[in-house]
């Protein structure tokens, strides 16, 4: 058993929160007693998100689920991808194309994959929230800073809790004073956007900074029951996991990259890089020829958010279509070293829980001498 | 109680290993039931180390203690500091002097503090080992790579265990195959030399890589009982601590820096930098005007080990003599955010143990639902 106050608050069996862009993974986590949290950033089309959340409503056996949007506190330059692409220097576009060709990644067939990922835009994230409110999420998480006050208020009116990621205690305190209910303390080892303070230090620092009334989820480096026990030992009331679900059989429905499974099963915990190349802000990615190219001499300086993601989104599509395990553009945490085989979500969940229980028994023996 | 197999192996009550350059801190930790480990790198004079270890023999109530030497696997260029200084470019020396003057750090009085820290030289570290063998340490730790085979053999002949730091699983495996008994898994958040993999991921990875017969000490980010519980949850059999002891009243005997206490009590976990400026290899330091200067435009590229430490050792002496809390050159981990007051070693030890026990009780309640 893993039971904290969050279980009752959300109607879940285990305080294991699973961030994933796959509705199939999210649904399976919720059905297995955790809380699946669907990442919305990939949905450019409002109707597609609406249909996907309807699918979630119908395929989770009535279990709760959450959604994750990306809403920067500072609203970046808005516009359609066509407008914004005017701000991308030609040299950047040319360098990306040349780099891809030198890695053997061909262009896409004419007319495919030219649209950027609009989920990084503030207006798109707002429409994600509006659509989510027409469904039954129990949690709206914001992966980037404090959500705007009116979004928090609207969520609360619908009885929905709001979570926000923090990479430093001062950000956590600011989230709470703006009305955020739950802090995701995301350490340096995490995949995707992440700060400089590592989980062992960050998690108890944030727990102490926000006080006992604000639940904290430990994030960054959580992929086993031992790590859940460590995070709860540090004072978290639950864990926020992401990378490990990229290694599940249900994730295959997204079909992101044919070479992805070979790439992550062979990777060690040393094989990630924290760089600005994915979105313009520091985010941890799997090391590959793609990250190497951006580290090589003569590579351009990444553009600010949201331009960098527009610059590379076509490249991501090309890389995914090529399916070469040596050329991968995938956010993943240092936990990737522990992802050595593809397994069903239910099996991963069962292992997390069993290892947590065994770990607490082991600690008991140490404490009893 | 905190009792693992290491307690019996070393004759200690708690598997809390305390690295410290202060014999006063080391002795107090050992007397409080942990294992004080004296850092030898500061001893240029063999007789001074000999006298200090005699003091340890006589002031630890017969309790065990350890020593820590710095012995790089690849022997760097040898020589006296006078020889080696020929390899230091004048531009570097001039930049350091100019930077210090601009921060208000005056030169030392004529004839003082001109000698570099020779403990970073391989030959000096070997003489440290020879002297230690004439005393009664139970552990020789090497803070930099696998110690040479003959040093390991000599230690074993004297019944002394050998520990080595590792920042990645492959280094830990290599240490063990060379005869090292205990691995110190030192995560990204640690003070001093540290790699890229953070403790939450590194510790279980190393535990799994070396197998159940090799004890692992969790290092990096350990400064509270919650963090000890987290580290043991991850599979470590004990913890290796360093930074927290810089904040003890016994450390004042070293009188390293009059402004140091003001500097660390106000620092948060965000106020460290991992840079090559201390020794030539990446090491985490307290952020200060000194680290800022090395990050500013126009600053030189740090020299390779052991030249960088020779370059800056005079600067360190000047900084320590000046005692300005804004200008500090001190290795410290991200745990510095938790060091908010100066306390006696015995009190810190008692708190670590009590918080560990309370944490295990809290985890029990979570596991029992």
Automatic annotation (TrEMBL), chains A, B:
The keyword Oxidoreductase applies. InterPro entries: Aldolase_TIM, NMO. It comes from Nocardioides panzhihuensis. The keyword Flavoprotein applies. One of its GO terms (molecular function) is nitronate monooxygenase activity. This is NAD(P)H-dependent flavin oxidoreductase YrpB (Nitropropane dioxygenase family). Signal peptide: none annotated. Keywords: Dioxygenase, Flavoprotein, FMN, Oxidoreductase. CDD domains: NPD_like (cd04730). PANTHER family: 2-NITROPROPANE DIOXYGENASE, MONOOXYGENASE RV1533-RELATED.
């Amino acid at each position: 058993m893993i039971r904290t106050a969050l279980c009752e608050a959300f109607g879940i069996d285990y305080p294991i929160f699973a961030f994933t862009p796959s509705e199939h993974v999210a649904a399976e986590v919720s059905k297995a007693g955790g809380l699946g949290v669907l990442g919305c950033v990939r949905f450019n089309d409002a109707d597609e998100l609406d249909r996907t959340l309807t699918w979630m409503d119908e395929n989770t056996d009535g279990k709760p689920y959450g959604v994750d949007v990306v809403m920067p506190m500072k609203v970046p330059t808005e516009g359609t991808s066509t407008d914004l692409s005017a701000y991308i220097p030609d040299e950047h576009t040319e360098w990306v194309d040349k780099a891809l060709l030198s890695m053997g990644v061909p262009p896409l067939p004419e007319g495919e994959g030219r649209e950027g990922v609009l989920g990084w835009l503030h207006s798109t994230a707002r429409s994600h929230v509006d659509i989510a409110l027409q469904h039954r999420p129990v949690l709206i998480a914001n992966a980037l800073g404090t959500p705007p006050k009116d979004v928090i208020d609207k969520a609360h009116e619908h009885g929905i809790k709001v979570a926000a990621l923090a990479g430093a205690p001062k950000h956590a305190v600011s989230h709470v004073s703006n009305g955020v209910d739950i802090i995701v303390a995301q350490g340096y080892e995490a995949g995707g956007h992440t700060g400089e303070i590592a989980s062992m230090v960050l998690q108890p620092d944030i727990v102490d900074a926000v006080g006992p009334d604000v639940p904290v989820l430990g994030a960054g480096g959580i992929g086993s029951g031992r790590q859940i026990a460590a995070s709860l030992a540090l004072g978290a009331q639950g864990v926020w996991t992401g990378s490990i679900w990229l290694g599940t059989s249900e994730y295959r429905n997204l079909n992101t990259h044919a070479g992805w499974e070979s790439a992550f099963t062979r990777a060690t915990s040393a094989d990630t890089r924290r760089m600005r190349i994915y979105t313009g802000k520091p985010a941890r990615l799997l090391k590959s020829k793609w990250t190497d190219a951006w580290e090589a001499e003569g590579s351009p300086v990444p553009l600010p958010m949201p331009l960098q993601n527009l610059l590379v989104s076509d490249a991501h599509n090309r890389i995914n279509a090529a399916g070469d395990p040596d050329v991968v553009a995938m956010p993943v945490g240092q936990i990737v070293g522990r992802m050595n085989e593809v397994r069903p979500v239910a099996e991963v969940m069962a292992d997390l829980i069993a290892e947590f229980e065994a770990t607490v028994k082991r600690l008991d023996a140490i404490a009893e001498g």
